[in-house]
Protein backbone atom coordinates (compact mmCIF):
# COMPACT_ATOMS: atom_id res chain seq x y z
CA UNK A 1 0.00 0.00 0.00
CA UNK A 2 1.23 3.48 -0.72
CA UNK A 3 -0.50 6.79 -0.11
CA UNK A 4 -0.91 9.39 -2.84
CA UNK A 5 -0.85 13.08 -1.96
CA UNK A 6 -4.62 13.05 -1.61
CA UNK A 7 -5.04 10.15 0.79
CA UNK A 8 -5.86 7.67 -1.93
CA UNK A 9 -4.21 4.30 -1.64
CA UNK A 10 -2.76 2.18 -4.42
CA UNK A 11 -2.97 -1.58 -3.98
CA UNK A 12 -2.85 -4.72 -6.04
CA UNK A 13 -6.27 -5.88 -7.19
CA UNK A 14 -7.74 -9.16 -6.01
CA UNK A 15 -10.47 -11.41 -7.47
CA UNK A 16 -13.30 -9.71 -5.60
CA UNK A 17 -12.54 -6.44 -7.43
CA UNK A 18 -13.77 -7.84 -10.78
CA UNK A 19 -17.24 -6.24 -10.64
CA UNK A 20 -15.99 -2.81 -9.63
CA UNK A 21 -13.24 -2.94 -12.29
CA UNK A 22 -15.76 -3.87 -14.99
CA UNK A 23 -18.10 -1.06 -13.98
CA UNK A 24 -15.36 1.56 -13.78
CA UNK A 25 -13.83 0.41 -17.06
CA UNK A 26 -17.11 0.49 -18.97
CA UNK A 27 -18.17 3.83 -17.47
CA UNK A 28 -14.84 5.55 -18.14
CA UNK A 29 -14.66 4.28 -21.71
CA UNK A 30 -18.24 5.41 -22.34
CA UNK A 31 -17.73 8.86 -20.80
CA UNK A 32 -14.44 9.46 -22.61
CA UNK A 33 -15.01 7.90 -26.02
CA UNK A 34 -18.66 6.79 -26.21
CA UNK A 35 -19.74 9.77 -28.33
CA UNK A 36 -17.52 8.51 -31.17
CA UNK A 37 -19.47 5.32 -31.81
CA UNK A 38 -22.89 3.95 -32.71
CA UNK A 39 -24.76 2.25 -29.86
CA UNK A 40 -24.23 -1.12 -31.54
CA UNK A 41 -20.45 -0.70 -31.90
CA UNK A 42 -20.11 0.64 -28.37
CA UNK A 43 -22.12 -2.23 -26.86
CA UNK A 44 -20.10 -4.79 -28.78
CA UNK A 45 -16.82 -3.26 -27.57
CA UNK A 46 -18.01 -3.07 -23.99
CA UNK A 47 -19.08 -6.72 -24.02
CA UNK A 48 -15.69 -7.83 -25.33
CA UNK A 49 -13.56 -5.58 -23.13
CA UNK A 50 -15.42 -4.57 -20.00
CA UNK A 51 -17.47 -7.61 -19.16
CA UNK A 52 -17.05 -8.97 -15.65
CA UNK A 53 -15.59 -12.21 -17.06
CA UNK A 54 -12.84 -10.29 -18.86
CA UNK A 55 -11.71 -8.99 -15.48
CA UNK A 56 -12.06 -12.40 -13.84
CA UNK A 57 -9.59 -13.72 -16.42
CA UNK A 58 -7.22 -10.77 -15.98
CA UNK A 59 -7.20 -11.18 -12.21
CA UNK A 60 -6.59 -14.92 -12.49
CA UNK A 61 -3.61 -14.48 -14.81
CA UNK A 62 -0.12 -14.77 -13.31
CA UNK A 63 1.23 -12.76 -16.25
CA UNK A 64 -0.86 -9.66 -15.60
CA UNK A 65 -0.54 -6.99 -12.95
CA UNK A 66 -3.61 -4.99 -11.90
CA UNK A 67 -3.40 -2.00 -9.56
CA UNK A 68 -6.36 -0.11 -8.15
CA UNK A 69 -6.58 3.33 -6.59
CA UNK A 70 -8.98 3.51 -3.68
CA UNK A 71 -10.59 6.65 -2.29
CA UNK A 72 -10.65 7.14 1.49
CA UNK A 73 -14.29 5.91 1.54
CA UNK A 74 -13.25 2.67 -0.19
CA UNK A 75 -14.62 3.62 -3.64
CA UNK A 76 -12.54 2.48 -6.59
CA UNK A 77 -11.20 5.66 -8.19
CA UNK A 78 -9.01 4.20 -10.91
CA UNK A 79 -7.08 1.20 -12.09
CA UNK A 80 -4.20 0.17 -14.31
CA UNK A 81 -3.30 -3.12 -16.01
CA UNK A 82 -0.10 -4.46 -17.54
CA UNK A 83 0.61 -7.82 -19.12
CA UNK A 84 1.93 -9.63 -22.19
CA UNK A 85 1.88 -7.42 -25.27
CA UNK A 86 -1.00 -8.11 -27.64
CA UNK A 87 -0.37 -5.15 -29.93
CA UNK A 88 0.60 -5.46 -33.60
CA UNK A 89 4.14 -4.15 -33.05
CA UNK A 90 6.59 -4.31 -35.97
CA UNK A 91 9.46 -6.02 -34.17
CA UNK A 92 7.97 -8.23 -31.46
CA UNK A 93 10.33 -9.46 -28.74
CA UNK A 94 10.04 -12.60 -26.58
CA UNK A 95 9.09 -10.67 -23.45
CA UNK A 96 7.22 -7.61 -24.68
CA UNK A 97 4.94 -6.03 -22.09
CA UNK A 98 1.96 -3.75 -22.66
CA UNK A 99 0.30 -1.20 -20.42
CA UNK A 100 -3.19 -2.42 -21.22
CA UNK A 101 -5.38 -0.02 -19.26
CA UNK A 102 -5.03 3.23 -17.35
CA UNK A 103 -8.41 4.55 -16.27
CA UNK A 104 -9.30 7.12 -13.62
CA UNK A 105 -12.96 7.69 -12.76
CA UNK A 106 -14.03 11.10 -14.05
CA UNK A 107 -14.62 12.82 -10.66
CA UNK A 108 -11.06 11.94 -9.67
CA UNK A 109 -9.27 12.87 -12.91
CA UNK A 110 -6.51 15.47 -13.03
CA UNK A 111 -5.61 15.07 -9.36
CA UNK A 112 -2.48 12.97 -9.78
CA UNK A 113 -4.06 9.50 -9.63
CA UNK A 114 -3.05 8.60 -13.20
CA UNK A 115 0.57 9.22 -12.27
CA UNK A 116 0.14 7.46 -8.92
CA UNK A 117 -1.04 4.32 -10.77
CA UNK A 118 1.37 4.53 -13.69
CA UNK A 119 4.56 4.82 -11.64
CA UNK A 120 4.27 1.55 -9.68
CA UNK A 121 2.91 -0.20 -12.77
CA UNK A 122 6.02 0.87 -14.69
CA UNK A 123 8.19 -0.43 -11.83
CA UNK A 124 6.50 -3.82 -12.13
CA UNK A 125 6.99 -3.81 -15.92
CA UNK A 126 10.62 -2.78 -15.77
CA UNK A 127 11.44 -5.34 -13.06
CA UNK A 128 10.52 -8.01 -15.61
CA UNK A 129 13.20 -6.71 -18.01
CA UNK A 130 10.84 -6.49 -20.98
CA UNK A 131 12.22 -6.74 -24.50
CA UNK A 132 9.87 -3.86 -25.29
CA UNK A 133 7.35 -1.86 -23.25
CA UNK A 134 4.35 -0.67 -25.25
CA UNK A 135 0.92 0.89 -24.99
CA UNK A 136 -1.83 1.88 -27.39
CA UNK A 137 -3.49 5.28 -27.33
CA UNK A 138 -6.24 6.92 -29.40
CA UNK A 139 -4.70 9.33 -31.93
CA UNK A 140 -6.77 12.24 -30.59
CA UNK A 141 -6.27 11.50 -26.87
CA UNK A 142 -3.71 14.26 -26.51
CA UNK A 143 -3.93 14.48 -22.71
CA UNK A 144 -3.04 10.82 -22.23
CA UNK A 145 -0.27 11.10 -24.83
CA UNK A 146 1.27 14.00 -22.90
CA UNK A 147 1.22 11.89 -19.75
CA UNK A 148 2.87 8.90 -21.45
CA UNK A 149 5.53 11.05 -23.14
CA UNK A 150 6.55 12.38 -19.73
CA UNK A 151 7.40 8.79 -18.76
CA UNK A 152 9.60 8.21 -21.81
CA UNK A 153 7.06 6.73 -24.23
CA UNK A 154 7.00 7.84 -27.84
CA UNK A 155 5.03 6.95 -30.95
CA UNK A 156 6.44 4.10 -33.03
CA UNK A 157 3.46 3.08 -35.16
CA UNK A 158 -0.02 4.02 -36.33
CA UNK A 159 -2.71 1.40 -36.74
CA UNK A 160 -6.48 1.01 -36.71
CA UNK A 161 -8.20 0.02 -33.48
CA UNK A 162 -11.55 -1.70 -33.84
CA UNK A 163 -14.50 -0.63 -31.71
CA UNK A 164 -17.18 -3.00 -32.92
CA UNK A 165 -16.94 -2.37 -36.67
CA UNK A 166 -15.68 1.18 -36.27
CA UNK A 167 -12.00 1.81 -37.09
CA UNK A 168 -10.23 4.35 -34.88
CA UNK A 169 -6.88 5.90 -35.72
CA UNK A 170 -4.59 4.69 -32.95
CA UNK A 171 -0.93 5.06 -32.01
CA UNK A 172 1.42 2.47 -30.51
CA UNK A 173 3.84 4.09 -28.06
CA UNK A 174 7.07 2.41 -26.96
CA UNK A 175 9.08 3.35 -23.88
CA UNK A 176 12.70 4.25 -24.44
CA UNK A 177 14.81 1.93 -22.30
CA UNK A 178 17.83 3.23 -20.47
CA UNK A 179 21.24 1.77 -21.23
C1 LIG B 1 -5.54 9.60 -18.82
C2 LIG B 1 -5.84 9.47 -17.32
C3 LIG B 1 -5.60 8.05 -16.88
C4 LIG B 1 -4.88 10.39 -16.56
O1 LIG B 1 -5.14 10.26 -15.18
P1 LIG B 1 -5.34 11.57 -14.26
O2 LIG B 1 -5.44 11.12 -12.87
O3 LIG B 1 -6.44 12.37 -14.83
O4 LIG B 1 -3.95 12.29 -14.56
P2 LIG B 1 -2.93 12.95 -13.53
O5 LIG B 1 -3.66 13.97 -12.71
O6 LIG B 1 -2.13 11.92 -12.83
O7 LIG B 1 -1.95 13.64 -14.55
C5 LIG B 1 -2.40 14.71 -15.30
C6 LIG B 1 -2.06 14.44 -16.75
O8 LIG B 1 -2.88 13.42 -17.29
C7 LIG B 1 -3.33 13.82 -18.58
N1 LIG B 1 -4.79 14.07 -18.46
C8 LIG B 1 -5.41 14.77 -17.54
N2 LIG B 1 -6.75 14.78 -17.75
C9 LIG B 1 -6.95 14.03 -18.82
C10 LIG B 1 -8.12 13.65 -19.52
N3 LIG B 1 -9.34 14.04 -19.16
N4 LIG B 1 -7.98 12.84 -20.58
C11 LIG B 1 -6.76 12.44 -20.95
N5 LIG B 1 -5.62 12.78 -20.32
C12 LIG B 1 -5.71 13.57 -19.27
C13 LIG B 1 -2.55 15.03 -18.95
O9 LIG B 1 -1.31 14.66 -19.51
C14 LIG B 1 -2.34 15.67 -17.59
O10 LIG B 1 -1.26 16.51 -17.49
P3 LIG B 1 -1.26 17.93 -18.22
O11 LIG B 1 -2.65 18.45 -18.21
O12 LIG B 1 -0.30 18.71 -17.39
O13 LIG B 1 -0.73 17.65 -19.57
C15 LIG B 1 -7.31 9.87 -16.96
O14 LIG B 1 -7.52 11.21 -17.29
C16 LIG B 1 -8.34 9.02 -17.62
O15 LIG B 1 -8.68 7.96 -17.12
N6 LIG B 1 -8.89 9.48 -18.77
C17 LIG B 1 -9.94 8.76 -19.45
C18 LIG B 1 -9.49 7.40 -19.95
C19 LIG B 1 -8.23 7.50 -20.80
O16 LIG B 1 -8.12 8.33 -21.71
N7 LIG B 1 -7.29 6.59 -20.52
C20 LIG B 1 -6.07 6.48 -21.27
C21 LIG B 1 -6.34 5.51 -22.36
S1 LIG B 1 -4.86 5.25 -23.32
For the structure shown, list the relevant keywords.
alpha+beta, 5 helices, Aminopeptidase, 179 residues, globular, binds coenzyme A, eight-stranded mixed beta sheet
SSE layout and pairing:
Layout: E1 2-3, E2 9-12, H1 18-33, H2 39-49, H3 52-60, E3 65-70, E4 76-84, E5 97-104, H4 113-127, E6 133-138, H5 142-150, E7 153-163, E8 166-175
Parallel strand pairs: 5-6
Antiparallel strand pairs: 1-2, 2-3, 3-4, 4-5, 6-8, 7-8
The structure holds coenzyme A.
3D architecture notes:
The structure is a single chain. The chain is built from 5 helices and 8 strands. It has helices at residues 18-33, 39-49, 52-60, 113-127, 142-150; strands spanning 2-3, 9-12, 65-70, 76-84, 97-104, 133-138, 153-163, 166-175. 31% of the residues are buried. It has one domain: Aminopeptidase. Coenzyme A binds next to helix 1, strand 5, helix 4 and helix 5.
Mean pLDDT across every amino acid position: 95
Our count of domains comes out at 1
The value of Rg in angstroms is 16 Å
Percent helix range: 25-40%
State the CATH class: Alpha Beta
Q: Strand pairing plus helix content: what structural class?
A: alpha+beta
What does the main sheet amount to?
8 strands, mixed
- The string of secondary-structure elements, in order, is EEHHHEEEHEHEE
Distinct small molecules bound, one entry per kind: coenzyme A
Which segments are poorly predicted (pLDDT under 50) over 5 or more consecutive residues?
A: none
Q: State the CATH superfamily name.
A: Gcn5-related N-acetyltransferase (GNAT)
The dominant shape is globular
Find the CATH topology.
Aminopeptidase
Number of DSSP-assigned strands = 8
Number of helices: 5
Strand order of the largest sheet: 1-2-3-4-5-6-8-7
Taken as a percent bin, the fraction of beta residues is: 25-35%
* End-to-end separation: 30 Å
- The CATH level-2 architecture is identified as 3-Layer(aba) Sandwich
Protein name: N-acetyltransferase
GO molecular function: acyltransferase activity, transferring groups other than amino-acyl groups
Domain N-acetyltransferase: 8-178
Pfam family, one: Acetyltransf_1
Amino acid sequence: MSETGKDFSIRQADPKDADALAQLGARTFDETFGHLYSTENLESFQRENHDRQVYDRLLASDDCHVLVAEAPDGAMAGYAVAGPCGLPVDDPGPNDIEIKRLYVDRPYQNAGLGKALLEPLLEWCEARAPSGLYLSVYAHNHGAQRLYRRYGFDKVKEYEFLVGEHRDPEFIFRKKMEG
